[in-house]
Amino acid sequence: MQLMSQASAEKLRGGFYTPEAIAAFMLRWGINGSTNLDILEPSCGDGVFLEQIQRLGSKFASVTAVEMDEVEADKAELISIPNKTIIRGDFHTYCNGTKKRFDLVIGNPPYW
Ligand SMILES: C[S@@+](CC[C@H](N)C(=O)[O-])C[C@H]1O[C@@H](n2cnc3c(N)ncnc32)[C@H](O)[C@@H]1O
After folding, report:
1. Would the pLDDT of 1 be above 60?
2. pLDDT(6) > 70
3. Which residue among 18, 43, 70, 87 is best mutated to probe the pocket of ligand 1, counting the most ligand atoms within 8 A of its Cβ?
4. Nearest-CA residue for atom 4 of ligand 1
5. What residues form DSSP beta bridges with 37?
6. pLDDT, tens digit, 9 for 90 and up, residues 25-64
7. For the domain bounded by 29-105, which CATH number is listed?
8. DSSP the chain
């Protein structure tokens, strides 16, 4: 057992990212041929799901990605896909404050 005071900052924020092939598989499954989904990635890290959306050439209405770590949010910001919004901050705060609704919520959340 490791005490929280001994754990790395990366471990504490759950900074372990999804392998590209798994993200691509999940996206193909979740999008399932749709072209007009509003997609939410609730804790996007460096943006592997956004990268795979770009690589697969997926069509969608919008992608909103939330990330509380500024450095990782900067990396996600660099991924060029249309109608993308990066929300810098806490996912729970975003959820409680938005009226936007989503068709697909996809990503690997933090586990502690
Ligand atoms: C397990 S990683 C997964 C990243 C990405 N979703 C993926 O699948 O590769 C979890 C991410 O959630 C972020 N995170 C943790 N708590 C958060 C919160 N309350 N709101 C937003 N992001 C959070 C961490 O900084 C980390 O980048």
Report:
1. no
2. no
3. 43
4. 45
5. none
6. 999 999 999 999 999 999 999 999 999 999 999 999 999 9
7. 3.40.50.150
8. ---GGGS-HHHHTT--PPPHHHHHHHHHHHHTT-S--EEEETT-TTTHHHHHHHHHT---SEEEEEES-HHHHHHHHTS--TTEEEEES-HHHHHHH-----SEE-S-----
Structure tokens of 46?
A: 């460096």
Dihedral, CA atoms, 4, 5, 8, 10, nearest 10 degrees?
60
Give domain limits for the chain: 29-105
Query: Rounded to the nearest 5 degrees, what angle is found at the Cα of 37, between the Cα atoms of 35 and 42?
Result: 135
Strands 62-67, 84-88: pairing is: parallel
- Best mutation site among 16, 67, 104 for ligand 1 pocket (most ligand atoms within 8 Å of CB): 67
Q: Which residues line ligand 1 (CB under 6 A)?
A: 13-18, 43-45, 48, 66-69, 72, 90-92, 107-108, 110
Contact between residue 18 and residue 106 where contact means Cβ atoms under 8 Å apart = no
